[in-house]
Amino acid sequence: MVILFLFLLFFPRTPSDSKSKDEPTYRLAIAVFLVSILHLVLTFLLSVMVIYLYRSHLSSWANFLGILGTCLAAIQFLPQIWTTWKLQEVGSLSIPMMCIQTPGSFVWVGSLAARFGWEGWSTWGIYLVTGLLQGCLLAMGIAFELRARRKRTAGDGGANGDSNGNADEANGNAHGHVTGEGDHERTVLLGNER
């Protein structure tokens, strides 16, 4: 919920005429926020109703919520996987963070599976799916980073930058802006330079 409120709080509120048609609007951000709140309220009310009125269906309701959570988690990861594949670069994803979090999700799956067994698949299944999807992102990220390093070392041997291959700073691009086309992972996100 905190992330949802921060998303809405920090969403850029620029006039719609200055944005391109591909960029999301503040109206869309509010719609996402309201749909998320509606989902939370409906799930809570239906869960209370099942607990008190249809107790015999509690296991089916839990399984449904597990499947729904797994589908929503997959929907959350799929755009990031597609974007990373399309760009063929890591962007702002943190490989060290994913190196910690990905195995951690599988440890968590093992812990839950040992505790709940196969009957608790709806509890640990969501973590298994998200761990696999994050592992996919991690594998792509490592492959793209290794390829980029090979290109940098084979391409110019550091001739355009300093001995560490920092061509941006050597070319007068101290803020990390790419002088070519489009944005780069070092481009200032909110557009306010200090």
What would your notes on this structure say?
- By secondary structure, this protein is mostly helical.
- It is built from six helices and no strands.
- It has helices spanning 2-10, 26-53, 58-87, 95-116, 121-155, 167-170.
- Helix 1 packs antiparallel against helix 2, helix 3 (58-87) packs parallel to helix 5 (121-155) and helix 4 (95-116) packs antiparallel against helix 5.
- The two termini are 30 Å apart.
- Mean pLDDT is 79; it is low at 161-180.
- Its main location: membrane.
- Keywords: Membrane, Signal, Transmembrane, Transmembrane helix.
- This is PQ loop repeat protein.
Describe, in short, the structure shown:
The chain has helices at 2-10, 26-53, 58-87, 95-116, 121-155, 167-170. By secondary structure, the chain is mainly alpha-helical.
Q: What are the key terms here?
A:
194 residues, 6 helices, flat, 2 domains, 66% helix, mainly alpha, Monooxygenase
Blueprint of the fold:
Blueprint: H1 2-10, H2 26-53, H3 58-87, H4 95-116, H5 121-155, H6 167-170
Order of helices and strands: HHHHHH
What is the CATH level 1 assignment of the largest domain? Mainly Alpha
Task: Return the average pLDDT rounded to an integer.
Answer: 79
Q: Low-confidence runs (pLDDT<50, min 5 residues)?
A: 161-180
Largest sheet: none
Number of helices, counting only DSSP H or I runs of 4 residues or more: 6
How large is the share of residues in beta strands?
Answer: under 5%
Shape category: flat
Helix content: 55-70%
Compute the gyration radius: what is it? 22 Å
- CA-CA gap between termini: 30 Å
Number of strands: 0
CATH architecture name of the largest domain: Up-down Bundle
Tally of domains: 2
**CATH topology value of the largest domain:** Monooxygenase
Briefly note the structural class of the backbone: mainly alpha
